[in-house]
Amino acid sequence: MSDNRETITDQELLETLRAMDSPVVSTTEIAEAEGVTISQGQILKRLKSLEERDRIGSKCYVAKPQIRLWWHKGTEFKRAWTSNDGITEEIGVEAVDVLDLPGRGEKLGKRREAVNAVFKFLFNVESGSKHELKFVGYGADMDTYADSDSLWNNCLKKALEQSPFYLLNKSKKNWGLSKLGMKIKARDNQPLWENWDENKQKIDELYHWILWTSLFESVTQFPLQSYSSYVDIIYENKDSNTTISYQLDLDGPAWSTSTGNFNVFLGIRCKSEDLTTVLNNIDELTSDLERNFQIKDLTEDDSGLLLKCSYELNLEASEMLRQLDETNGDLIHPLRRLYQWEQKTSHELIEVDKKVNQLII
């Protein structure tokens, strides 16, 4: 059978490769390019032939599924994986736009495009060396730094360190997807660029799940009004209708926020006359509660009382997840302090619950 070579010449195939938006592209992307009328299998044969003649280069990556990326050896690199709106200070990829990168205006926009190219490359191949990542990033931005090393040291490396989706494997000396990155990729192959509104909700849930399971055995969660707020009921006294529950409430999206509160609640539900007794004796009931706390009276809603104790958080997401990855889930120092606070506070609230039961029996 003919491979239909007459439908597109080698030179036309090379021009197609040169005209692509990214410096490195997959066989599928070439097959889907405008003007390419032969099958993907035929394109693969042609590309291998061009590589044998040293016209193009390629490398095969063990991803899921395995992927081979190609590049034109003689091309002057263009911007890679550009945003739809062209170069502006914000490129429209939230996971990149939230990062603290050097520069402003058009210069910052170009650097974000370079970071975006590296991020997308790593989601494609799952692991890449510093040399490969410099190659991809410099293909997207050859203008704002003197050379690829400067771009790497001042921009690309800093972006990878800030993002919770990537992790440096120190033993292999390459960058890959973190546990969070792998989990979200399993949901969507290009999660930072496609179906973003749905995926960022899932990313936040996964972040909370990873943090939660590093602190507690229980993993049952349900969202509150804010997507950055989750509650888990850990302790429940069915005899007195009291519960102790926990809430992780960040000030913004997990991938860009380090501050918020970890809240522990004691919920008290009983007859209205008993709630009045509890309120009248609240100072005595909470006299041994060492932590600062708030009391919310929900009697008008027939919901009872809510005691809230809060721990102020400063957990930089990417650093925390990176350390958890490296320690195989062992508690790192900031989480150990949080765990100790939670243990002490929960014990104090259980003692309050006992006092309430003794008062209203």
Structure, described:
- The chain is of the alpha+beta class.
- The protein folds into three domains: 76 residues, Arc Repressor Mutant, subunit A (Orthogonal Bundle), CATH 1.10.10.10; 117 residues, no CATH class; 161 residues, Yope Regulator, Chain: A.
- It is built from 13 helices and twelve strands.
- It is elongated, with a radius of gyration of 27 Å.
Summarize the helices and strands and which ones pair or pack:
Layout: H1 10-19, E1 25-26, H2 27-31, H3 40-52, E2 56-61, E3 67-72, H4 94-97, H5 105-125, E4 127-129, H6 130-140, H7 148-162, E5 166-169, E6 174-177, H8 179-187, H9 196-215, E7 222-223, E8 229-237, E9 242-250, E10 259-268, H10 272-280, H11 282-285, E11 293-298, E12 304-314, H12 317-326, H13 333-360
Antiparallel strand pairs: 1-3, 2-3, 4-6, 5-6, 7-8, 8-9, 9-10, 10-12, 11-12
Helix pairs in contact: 5-6, 5-7, 6-7, 8-9
Summarize the structure.
This protein is an alpha+beta fold and 361 residues long. It is 44% helix and 20% strand. The protein has helices spanning 10-19, 27-31, 40-52, 94-97, 105-125, 130-140, 148-162, 179-187, 196-215, 272-280, 282-285, 317-326, 333-360, and strands spanning 25-26, 56-61, 67-72, 127-129, 166-169, 174-177, 222-223, 229-237, 242-250, 259-268, 293-298, 304-314.
